[in-house]
Structure formats: structure tokens, C-alpha cells
Amino acid sequence: MSKFSNKKSLIASTIIGALALTASNFASADALSELQKAEASTFEASKKSQQKINSIYEQTIELLGEYRLTVDEGETLSQYNDHIQLMVNDQLENIQSLEDQIAGIDKTKQGIVPLMYKMIDTLDKFVALDIPVNIENRKERVANLRDVLGASDISVSEQFRLVLEAYEIEANYGTVFAAYQGELDLGDRTITADFVHMGRVALVAQSLDMKNVWVWNNETRGWEALGDEYLKPTKDAIAMARNQLPKDLTKLPVFAAGAK
């Protein structure tokens, strides 16, 4: 083979090698491009996956916060419910206590009502046997008490209060020094007179012209005329009781117990 032929073969081989290298370079470039694309696709997928993970994490944190808030609210609500239950239990006990008291009141009423009737009867007898101080007012008070006991719009407690009040008024007659004007029944006639009493010790009446004076005798249940020596003492006693004279010693007739 000639040198020229060898040179041609070498050139041809060189061209072929260059072409093969170029083809290999092209193939490597394509592979690299594909690899880069695959890496980019993987990175993008990883990025999206991370975004999803982040979103899920945020949702998880939010749900965890809501859960904790719900748990806290549940505990608070449970404590509040326990508090309300205590109040309800206390109210139930109060209701039961009130029901027991009401039942007791009904039983008490059953005993008080007959007692009040007896008290009024006793008061009526007492007024009839007592010295006739303000007798008409006292009899009227007793009659009003009987009407009160028959009134459905007045509570038992108020009825009982009025009965006790009447007893208190009667008790005060035993300590009061007072004068008043009223009708004096002398049997054969009735006149207007001034009355003065020192508790239940003495009850004296004087005519308005101050010329006559009488004393009540509770044993005979009648008025007895007094002598003229009692005209001025009775007049002074009436003035003292009305605060028209300063309180001072005076002479009034007193019937001793059992005296005839």
C-alpha cells in the first residue's frame, strides 16, 4: 500500500473517529439534558411535596390549637357545670326546707286558729268584767277581731298579730294615767262626763259642770256618788291627766280588794 493510500486511510479514520466523538458528545449532551430535566422535575416534585407537607403541618398545628382550646373550654365548662350543679343542689335543699316549713305552717295554723278564737273569747270576758275604761272602744275592738278571723283576705299571721295587739292594749290600761270624755250610764239617766283613771286602781267620773263626782265599784258593777270633798281632787286629776297641770299628789277613792 502506498503512502498516499495510508494517509487517506488515516484521514478517513480520523474523520470517522471525529464523527464518532462528535456523535458521542451529542449523545452525552442529550443524556445530560435529560438528567438535568429529570433533576428539575424531581426538584419541582419535591418542592410541591414540601409545600403539601408544610400545608399539612400548618393544618395540623391549627387543629392541635383548636383541640387544645376545645379541651380547655371543655374543662372550663365541666367546672362551670359542677358549680351550677352545686347551686342546683343547694336550691333543691332550700326548696325541700321550704316545703317542710310550709307543711309545718299548715300544722301550726291548725293549732293557732282555734287558739285565737279562745283568746278572743277570753278577751271578751275580761273586758266585760274589767273596770269600764273606754268600754265602747274596747268592745268594738273585740268585735272587730271576730270579723278579722272570718276574713279570707287576711293572713293567719296578721290575724294573730292583731289579737296580740289587742292584748297589749288591754295590758296598758293597767299602767296608764289618762282622762277622756264619754257617756256615763247612771241607770236612770245617761249624761256626758269627764273620766279619769289611774290604771285599774281607780276610775272616777265628774259631770261637766263639776258639781257631781262618781267612782266605779267593780264589785257591785256600778257607779257610786262621792262627796263634795272629791270634787276638786277629781278636777285636778283630770287636768293632770290632760297635761293641763303638773303631776302632783291628789286624793282619789280606791276600792280595796274584798272591801264592802
UniProtKB/TrEMBL annotation:
| Coiled-coil segments on the chain, per record | 81-108
Q: Which organism is it from?
A: Colwellia hornerae
| Full protein name | DUF3450 domain-containing protein
Signal peptide as annotated in the record: 1-29
Q: Which InterPro entries match?
A: UCP028069
Keyword set, alphabetical order: Coiled coil, Signal
